[in-house]
Amino acid sequence: MKYLEKIQSLLPLGYMYLIVLGLLKETIFFYPLGINILNYSSITDILISPISDMTSNPILILVVLSVVLLFFLFQILLVKYSHKNWIQKILKSYRMDTNLDKRELRKAMIPAFVMLAGFELLALFIGLGLGQGEKIKKRLDSQTLQHNYILTTGSGERVPVYLIDINSIYYFYVKKDEKQVRIAPVGGIGNIEVINNK
User: Fold this and answer.
1) Which residues lie below 8 Å from residue 105, measured CB to CB, with a gap of 6+?
2) Taking a C-beta distance cutoff of 8 angstroms, is the pair 64, 54 a contact?
3) pTM score
4) Residues paired with 153 in a beta bridge
5) Rounded Cα–Cα distance for residues 22 and 50 (Å)
6) Sign of the four-CA dihedral 12, 18, 24, 27
7) What is the C-alpha to C-alpha distance for residues 24 and 122, in angstroms, rounded to an integer?
8) Sign of the CA dihedral with 54 first, then 60, 62, and 66 last
9) What long-range pairs does 133-138 form, CB within 8 A, spacing at least 24?
């Protein structure tokens, strides 16, 4: 029961870490496009950014879960075979006491497990931000963006656009045959339709 209470007390810290990672990813993503996303984000956007990043891409969820599962399985193997010489060398390299019983060893490995999972998430979010931002910037410079939406402005004009992102206040898009990223308030857009690119 104490273990469950400890996990519950750490959940807010974990969520704060995810929020920081979401902010970092968004900032890195929009930087090559010359946009300071914090100027265009509400507190709601900041709070839900890690959840929206995780749920918008099922592959991302699978990668995160599989890496965490691999760390967990590695920890189980280390504890199970802690009496083997090669495991003892690994434990000594992490400055862990090799004379602990299995239960104490499992508890001693939790901070290392949390650090590895945190580092994995940091690398994943930064990598996604860098990769996606640079990819859009290169396609924007070479005019190879596939326009994926038809945007109807408040005045009734229908324009094919590449939609970069949406938050609760703004649309970020590029019009066809332009290299400039446009930022429009949600209220200024009349309608948006998906272009079927099959």
Assistant:
1) 78, 79, 82, 91, 96
2) yes
3) 0.77
4) 189
5) 5
6) negative
7) 9
8) negative
9) 133/28, 133/29, 133/30, 133/31, 133/32, 133/33, 134/32, 136/32, 136/33, 136/164, 137/32, 137/33
pLDDT digit string (tens) for 133-192? 999 999 999 988 888 899 888 778 888 999 999 888 999 999 988 888 999 998 888 888
End-to-end CA gap in the chain: 54
pLDDT at 130 (0 to 100): 93
Alpha helices, H only, the chain:
2-30, 43-56, 58-80, 85-93, 102-141
Local structure of 99: helix, strand or coil: coil
pLDDT band for position 94 (cuts 50, 70, 90): low
- Tokens found for residue 141: 């410079």
Whole-number Å distance between alpha carbons of 159 and 163 = 11
Mean pLDDT, the chain, rounded, equals 81
* CA–CA dist 19, 22 (Å, integer): 5
Q: Are 153 and 159 in contact (CB under 8 A)?
A: yes
